[in-house]
Write a structure and sequence with these properties.
The complex is a heterodimer of chains A (119) and B (590). Chain A is α+β, with helices and mostly antiparallel strands. Chain A has four helices and four strands, in the order βαβααββα. In chain A, strand 3 and strand 4 form a beta hairpin. The longest helix of chain B has 21 residues. The chains are: A alpha+beta (119), B alpha/beta (590). Chain B: Keywords: Arsenical resistance, ATP-binding, Nucleotide-binding, Translocase.
């Protein structure tokens, strides 16, 4: 099965509760990660503020950080190669990577513009 | 002393800074050791003078105390524990990752949660490792973990993956990621805490209404998670005979007796001991041995009434008024009187004919209510922190938590109970009012910590970066952070009491703000007995101790400062607040 590695920005909580505003994308993505695991995928999340060494030891991730800065996280690798950068995948994208069908399309409308003020 | 009867294996003393937890813990240790029990005393007090008390260097290892047979002590420095933890995480990547990334990581790990969890980690071993503690019949801690920490450790969801595998969801337990112990150990530690056969929790308070209310909250929070075996100690109560000495002592005595009579019902049922204010400093073995016995104030110990020549609050207001408008934020630990000082500054400004908006988060609304409409130029508004936090919490759970499973939802709920959440919710409510500060004075009785500001500023930094990349030099961005960093626009006043622990806590707040690029404009020392020039020997003794702390603030911590005397009557209403601002070095003997 596929391995998905998610390199999160420096968050004190993976839900983002401690930030200015709880990021809907993060909360939704936590649920999607659970779903992907149920599909048999290996999903690993690394938080920049807690496991920075993992970021430093991976050449792709380190290079990305040097070029684009931490603002450009998250970075998502699929079996070691860049699959997505700058935002979290939605459930359809996860399904495509894993080669499975999404039974029920209750996935988020998608991307960073899910109703927040960011775009 | 009821709390000393048939003591269990673990004794925890908890209460806010400055109530005397460490002194009582030391005295308890000495008392039990004198009864022939083998005792280990564990201090996490950042102002720990346990070593000084026993005349030896202690530090972060179990050290036998030669002067007290059967007693050993250990000092845990929570700040150092947190620093060691940060170094463990950040050290290996320094130089490997870009510098700004490394700084960002360090900030994430600089919150109060990290410090608390790092300290908890340090004493977990003492709770569970029988080889370490087998030698001791009693282990006495001068602190206790908060309900938030314990609840997090109890949540099964918090442990999903992260701590066992080092990956997965982290939540507020994030800081625990770098801790080496196993889940079973934390679970055993929490079990030991919640076991009334093994653990007794002693709540330490002063005879003040606000303090007792806070202790009642702590009691309920900890009882709800199983720490039911609680005792109450009310420390430093002024003895009746002192009340005859002067009007201030009488006023303090009356106020304390009223607070004791109106003790919150949940506390009234606890076994309670009252310790009288002592006429000597609680330093040294002899002093500590007599903490639990009543000693009459010794008139022979008479010292000359200390002379204090310190600036009044009104002199600080001169400097604030000079700019014509701006934001004034009072910062300090709970119970130091931020709301009173904010109100006094607002009233003094309005009295000088300047337009002022006073906004408070004071849970006891009477202060703001009595002021509203009472003075031309002064408007008053109130933000209820509890309601703001509830609204924020509900909104987050409803929108963002809607699709979480039960475990995820429980975790999100607990995350939302973290102290940061309240700070953020209240600050968001305040920031609506902050904009007014361009035209008039806005005085607030609260301020976010530097840590919160740095986290909040992440957005501001992002917008600035975008502007820079677009090369749009004409565009002007003002983030709340930039406004707070500019002393022309914002003055942060640190409020404290003239006592060791509160001054130390205030210095920590200042360091935290400086990290966020904010230099506190002044310090205000509230409730000073020295500034009130007392006659009673007990109060004079306290005044002498205060002078040392006031000197430390004046020479080491503050750019400018003011001392506000303790008043005979609660400073409520325009008249008394004006009096408060203008008293100080001109105080008549009361």
């Amino acid at each position: 099965m596929k391995t998905i590695q998610i390199f999160d920005p420096a968050l004190c909580c993976s839900t983002g509760v401690c930030g200015v505003d709880v990021d809907q994308a993060l909360v939704q993505f936590s649920a999607d990660v659970d779903w992907a695991k149920q599909q048999g995928a290996t999903v690993e999340r690394f938080n920049l503020s807690q496991q920075p060494l993992v970021f430093a030891e991976n050449a792709i991730v380190r290079g990305y950080l040097e070029r684009s800065g931490q603002e450009a996280l998250p970075l998502i690798l699929l079996d070691g190669e860049v699959a997505l950068a700058g935002r979290y995948p939605n459930r359809n994208e996860l399904a495509r990577w894993l080669g499975v069908l999404v039974v029920q399309a209750d996935a988020p409308k998608g991307g960073c513009c899910s109703g927040s003020k960011c775009c | 002393m009821k709390f000393l009867e048939q003591p269990p294996h673990f004794l925890f003393f908890t209460g806010k800074g400055g109530v005397g937890k460490t002194s009582i813990a030391c005295a308890t240790a000495i008392e039990l050791a004198a009864q022939g029990r083998r005792v280990l005393l564990v201090s996490t007090d950042p102002a720990s003078n346990v070593g000084q008390v026993f005349g030896i260097e202690i530090g972060n290892r179990v050290t036998p105390i030669p002067a007290v047979p059967n007693l050993a002590a250990l000092e845990i420095d929570p700040q150092a524990a947190a620093q060691a933890y940060r170094d463990r995480i950040v050290g290996p990547v320094r130089g490997l990752l870009p510098d700004d990334v490394v700084r960002g990581i360090e900030e994430q790990l600089s919150g109060a949660c990290t410090t608390e969890i790092a300290a908890f980690d340090e004493f977990t071993a003492l709770l569970v490792d029988s080889s370490l503690t087998a030698d001791y019949e009693h282990i006495i801690f001068d602190t206790a973990p908060t309900g938030h920490t314990i609840r997090l450790l109890q949540l099964p969801g918090a442990w999903s993956g992260f701590l066992e595998e080092g990956k997965g969801d982290a939540s507020c337990l994030g800081p625990l990621a770098g801790l080496e112990k196993q889940r079973s150990q934390y679970k055993a530690a929490v079990d030991a805490l919640a076991d009334p056969q093994r653990t007794r929790l002693v709540l330490v308070a002063r005879a003040q209404q606000a303090t007792l209310r806070e202790v009642a909250r702590t009691h309920e929070e900890l009882a709800a998670i199983g720490l039911t075996r609680q005792y109450l100690v009310i420390n430093g109560v002024l003895p009746a005979e002192e009340a005859a000495q002067d009007a201030l002592a009488k006023a303090i005595f009356d106020r304390e007796q009223v607070a004791l009579a109106a003790i919150p019902p949940v506390l009234a049922s606890l076994p309670c001991d009252i310790l009288a204010l002592k006429p000597f400093n609680l330093v040294g073995l002899d002093a500590l041995r007599s903490l639990f016995t009543d000693v009459a104030a010794d008139a022979a110990q008479d010292s000359a009434a200390p002379y204090l020549d310190a600036p009044s609050l009104a002199t600080l207001v001169d400097g604030i008024a000079a700019d014509g408008h701006g934001l004034v934020m009072l910062m300090g630990k709970g119970g130091v009187g931020k709301t009173t000082i904010a109100a006094a500054i607002a009233v003094e400004l309005a009295h000088r004919g300047l337009p002022v908006h006073l906004t408070t988060s004071d849970p006891a609304a009477h202060l703001s209510e009595t002021l509203d409409g009472s003075l031309e130029n002064l408007t008053v508004s109130r933000i209820d922190p509890h309601a703001e936090t509830e609204r924020y919490r509900e909104q987050v759970l409803k929108t963002k938590g809607a699709q979480l499973d039960a475990q995820g939802r429980a975790l999100l709920e607990e995350d939302l109970r973290s102290p940061c959440t309240e700070e953020i919710a209240v600050f968001q409510a305040f920031s609506r009012i902050i904009r007014e500060a361009g035209k008039k004075f806005v005085v607030m009785d609260t301020a976010p910590t530097g840590h919160t500001l740095l986290l909040l500023d992440a957005t501001g930094a992002y917008h600035r970066e975008i502007a820079r990349q677009m090369g749009n030099k004409g565009m002007h961005f003002t983030t709340p952070m930039m406004q707070l960093q500019d002393p022309k626009q914002t003055k942060v006043l640190i409020t404290t009491l003239a006592e060791t622990t509160p001054v130390l806590e205030a210095a920590n707040l200042q360091a935290d703000l400086r990290r966020a690029g904010i230099a506190p404009w002044a310090w205000v020392i509230n409730n000073s007995v020295a500034a009130a020039r007392p006659h009673s020997p007990l109060l004079r003794r306290r005044a002498c101790n205060e002078l040392i702390e006031i000197e430390a603030v004046a020479s080491r911590h503050a750019i400018r400062y003011a001392v506000v005397p303790m008043l005979k009557e609660e400073p409520i209403g325009v008249e008394r607040l004006l009096e408060l601002a203008n008293q100080g070095q001109t105080t008549q003997g009361v």
